[in-house]
Amino acid sequence: MSVITIERQILEKNDEIARANRERFERSGIFAINLVSAPGSGKTRILEQCLERLKSRIRICVIEGDVQTDLDAQRVARYDVPVVQIVTRGGCHLEARLVQDALTRLDLAGVQLLVIENVGNLVCPANYDLGEAKKVVVVSTTEGADKPLKYPTMFRNASVLLINKIDLLPYVDCDLSALRENALKINPDLEIFPLSARTGDGMDAWCNWLVEKSVTRR
Amino acid sequence: MSVITIERQILEKNDEIARANRERFERSGIFAINLVSAPGSGKTRILEQCLERLKSRIRICVIEGDVQTDLDAQRVARYDVPVVQIVTRGGCHLEARLVQDALTRLDLAGVQLLVIENVGNLVCPANYDLGEAKKVVVVSTTEGADKPLKYPTMFRNASVLLINKIDLLPYVDCDLSALRENALKINPDLEIFPLSARTGDGMDAWCNWLVEKSVTRR
Is the pTM of the predicted complex or chain greater than 0.90? Predict the structure, then answer.
């Protein structure tokens, strides 16, 4: 039995559980997103800004994925939304089974939006469907315009691209239009939202998109 | 045969080839570093600054690792140093065997410093020894002070920490002393160099360290 065969079996098993998660979300009218990026792109900061703006408008819960620590779950818990932390203890991505387990610890009644924040990794989470409606990839302006070309699978499998830290554009050598262009070269269907979780710039457009998707689903 | 057993076999096989690489470097008087970080932390930019400063002082060659594209090798080649690009085609880390293969395409006669730039990933490359003398981890100020706590294996296995993008400190919410403290909590032996590959600030101290290590080795 080769390693490649085992990898395929792992992915097939993952896809099977992801399908079950997806059916559950659809049955319950939950819009689920899988938030992915490199470490430090600002996934948690963006999420905090969304919770600040949306927690009185729609019912949200959060699953946090991290290699170690529950620091992110602590940050999210301050906004009084239900949150479960998955610590992978070295694992480089979330899997559908981990999300399935986490769901047993959440009361999903009435929930409209589930945000699953994945492990900070632009490679491995790309191939693991969690059952989400949309994969949302974050890239920050400090990372450079070439990232979609260098990590294409993630950008190909995502539906939405959030370009974070636009407040830093005057201080970094990032060509925003080249970044857009490179992303659309890999995936012409990407919806793109430039924003800054620090200043709040662009956050309203992204939050409105989330509300629209979460409400029309019910 | 379980997946865990196979993983252990892969790591054991990797360590065996890494040992052979290491012996080869030591026999030839080559100081080899394994440069690791999240995507977009500035590994290639730091390397370009080093080449600019060091190529007339010591003999350097480079192995570039990327998931896709040879963009980084093109950048390095401009400095007239021998460079080999490894494209992992989806693979999330370099392995000792890939480095061993790359070495067959390099003329190592007289080489004093070999820089192996790993795939941008703060998780998976942590466990794969390539035969380097030192693992050098880069974190940028834009990524936040919590990264050593959230990705501890990489910081535990590294000997040197480069804190890049210190020019952005006035514009980001990164507490430099907290970042240092978190890194030293995980690994008290880390040598730390704060620098900016953009402005050149701090680059001399880091380059002098590289020269010292590369020259004393011969």
Answer: yes
Contacts of A128 by beta carbon, 8 Å cutoff, 6+ apart: A11, A14, A18, A93, A94, A95, A96
Residue B92 has its nearest CB partner, among A66, A124, A165, at: A124
Beta-carbon contacts of residue B51 (< 8 Å; ≥ 6 apart): B60, B62, B76, B79, B81
DSSP H helix total and E strand total for chain B: 8, 7
> Which segments of B45-142 are extended strands (E)?
60-66, 83-87, 113-117, 134-140
- Show the tokens assigned to A96: 């559908």
A4 interfacial to chain B (CB closer than 8 Å) = no
Contacts of A153 in chain B (CB under 8 A): 67, 90
The C-alpha of B45 sits at a distance from chain A's nearest C-alpha, in angstroms, of: 11
> Residues A138-149: pLDDT tens digits?
999 999 999 999
Strand ranges in A118-211 using DSSP code E only, listed in sequence order:
134-140, 160-164, 191-194
Alpha helices in A40-175 (DSSP H): 43-54, 71-77, 96-103, 147-150, 152-157
Residues in chain B where the model's pLDDT stays below 70: 1-5, 217-218
What's the half-sphere exposure (Cβ side, CA atoms, 13 Å) at B165?
Answer: 29
ipTM for this prediction = 0.93
Q: Which residues contact A192 (CB under 8 A, 6 or more apart)?
A: A160, A161, A162, A163, A180, A183, A184
The number of residues in chain A equals 218
Half-sphere exposure of A78 (CA within 13 A, CB side): 13
B153 → closest Cβ in A66, A69, A90: A90
The DSSP bridge pattern shows strands A31-37 and A134-140 to be: parallel
CA-based nearest distance B67→chain A, Å = 6
**Which residues of chain B does A71 touch, with a Cβ-Cβ cutoff of 8 Å?**
146, 149-150
Residues of chain A in contact with residue B10, where contact means CB-CB under 8 angstroms, are 3
| Segment holding B160, helix H or strand E | strand B160-164
Mutate to test the interface with B, among A150, A163, A172, A174 (most CBs of B within 10 A): A150
Chain-centre distance of CA B75, in angstroms?
Answer: 16
Q: Give the pLDDT mean for A17-46.
A: 98
B143 CB-near residues (< 8 Å, 6+ apart): A39, A40, B38, B41, B174
